[in-house]
TrEMBL record:
Signal peptide: none annotated. Residues 246-283 are annotated as: Disordered. It comes from the Bacteria. It comes from Marininema mesophilum. Coiled coil: none annotated. This is Lipoprotein. Residues 246-261 have a biased composition (Polar residues).
């Protein structure tokens, strides 16, 4: 149980963090269409963005009649580009007197994660290009508007909440109530990042054993520039596990804030030594 506990809690954050980096930018009032257009134009001028990430998370494992809980704090920096869609982050997780380095690259659907502070694992998550589909940000946002227009009003109100303040637009998204294809992308991202690490610990787990229970994001957009300033995220998930004939559950919850630190003008590429030394995630 100790081995399972250490691996799962230290690395599951990778999936939650990567999911947070893929937030969907959506409109607010002036009119609905006005803000879509202005947000799209602001995005088109930017090649990429840098973020500071602060978070805390709690994991509880129930297995073999035992229960163990750990609280952790996360400090990381991330870069994200849109052409092509790619994400890189690097930082530390601290909890119970321990500290461990975390780092991850994702280009397309390929995820490279630093495991146990020294070894690299490769796995497949959601294809980041699905968020862009080789479209301009304007076309992506317009596509999102099309999805929203097809939702019944009561479901739209549950999934998306827009507020206007003096100098900000505040967009709240409840992804559990969002269109099914959006939820599936986030589910794919989580399973692709989590499963390889659990299987390394000889834990039996399948995609259907990982359930996203809550994913709420609050995105703050500057009213003058229409650029994202920060994103606050709350996520909860449940994982059913089996090991050596014993079954159990992992419950994870996380809060994180991603604060925009400015434009990122470089290209995110997976270093050759990471590609060459990464082990494929256990199947």
């Amino acid at each position: 149980m100790k081995r399972l506990f250490q691996i799962s809690t230290m690395v599951i954050f990778t999936a939650l963090l990567s999911t947070g980096c893929q937030s969907i930018t959506a409109p607010e009032k002036l009119s609905f269409q006005d803000v879509i257009n202005r947000t799209a134009k602001a995005e088109e001028k930017s090649h990429g963005s840098r973020f500071k990430i602060d978070g805390e998370q709690t994991f509880t494992i129930n297995a073999k009649g035992q229960k163990q809980t750990i609280n952790q704090k996360v400090d990381a920096n991330a870069e994200m580009t849109t052409k092509p869609m790619a994400v890189h982050f690097k930082g530390n997780i601290q909890g119970n007197g321990q500290s461990q380095q975390i780092e991850s690259y994702q280009v397309g659907s390929s995820i490279y994660q630093l495991a146990n502070g020294s070894n690299w694992l490769k796995s497949e998550g959601a294809d980041l290009d699905q968020f862009a589909s080789n479209q301009t940000p304007s076309e992506t946002i317009q596509k999102l508007q099309g999805l929203l227009s097809k939702l019944q009003k009561d479901k739209k109100d549950k999934a998306f909440n827009l507020k206007e303040k003096k100098d900000k637009y505040i967009l709240s998204i409840n992804f559990i109530e969002a269109p099914e294809n959006i939820k599936q992308m986030f589910q794919k991202q989580m399973t692709g990042a989590i499963i390889p690490h659990l299987k390394q610990a000889r834990v039996t787990v399948n995609e259907n054993d990982i359930q996203l229970k809550k994913l709420d994001q609050v995105i703050t957009i500057d009213k003058k520039t229409f650029k994202q300033e920060k994103m606050d995220q709350i996520m909860e998930l449940n994982i059913s596990i089996a090991q050596n004939g014993d079954t159990g559950t992992i419950h994870g919850s996380q809060k994180q804030t991603q604060t925009h630190q400015g434009e990122y003008k470089e290209t995110i590429e997976v270093p050759a030594d990471v590609k060459n030394n990464a082990s494929p995630g256990p199947q």
